Amino acid sequence: MQQERILVSKKYIRIIIFLCLFNSVLYSQENKPSYFGHRVTIGNYNSFWEDDIGIIEAGYDFIINFLYIAPEYNILDFGIGLSGLFAFDKLGNPRQPVLGLGLNGGMRLYTPALRKTRIFLEGVMSLVTYAKEFPENGTIVNGGWHLGGGIEYNIENATKLFSKILWFHTSNNDVYGRDRNPSINAVGIAAGIQL
């Protein structure tokens, strides 16, 4: 009786081990595209107009990939994430940074790959809360967007390096009027890694 239970339990253990191994082979990264990913970005944006501001931004996004044309290459992705910003207003010498925290939602549209490289267009909407009024005499909460494009290089499977050029816009919808609370525009570059 005891020996029968041991044989039956060994049989079930073998079946479970087989199913685990079969499942890992069936759903391995090489055989199936990655529908989810992570993106880390760092960028620097500067205004060359009367705004004279500078922004350094570091961010993380959780990515959902769509419409695969090959296991490594999708056409579209959506991301949602957080970013930290150091914004420098034109006033003061030396300029004092204003710390901000942003909630971002974005989309990328990719071209088909040429070897391991492809081009993309990107749009991001964000809601940013600053530690103090930005710009000075503005508001603490600002809306914004990035719009631009870049190039991506596929290192291996789901690991990609990218760089991009973006137009950065932030405003608070003229809450106090344009004279007191103007919108800010800047151009910048960013780079990062997607896993």
List keywords for this structure.
195 residues
What does this structure look like?
- The protein is mainly beta and 195 residues long.
- The protein folds into 2 domains: 32 residues; 161 residues, Porin (Beta Barrel), CATH 2.40.160.
- It has 1 helix and 8 strands, in the order H-E-E-E-E-E-E-E-E.
- The relative contact order is 0.17.
- About 4% of the residues have low confidence.
The CATH architecture term of the largest domain is Beta Barrel
Form type: elongated
Number of strands: 8
Helix content: 10-25%
Span from first to last CA?
53 Å
The first-level CATH class of the largest domain is given as Mainly Beta
Q: What structural class should be given to the helix and strand makeup?
A: mainly beta
Provide the residue-averaged pLDDT: 78
Multimeric state: single chain
Tell me the radius of gyration.
24 Å
What is this structure's SSE topology?
Layout: H1 2-26, E1 36-46, E2 54-70, E3 73-88, E4 97-110, E5 117-134, E6 139-156, E7 159-171, E8 184-194
Antiparallel strand pairs: 1-2, 1-8, 2-3, 3-4, 4-5, 5-6, 6-7, 7-8
Short description:
This protein has 195 residues and is mainly beta. It contains one helix and eight strands, in the order αββββββββ. Mean pLDDT is 78; it is low at 22-29.
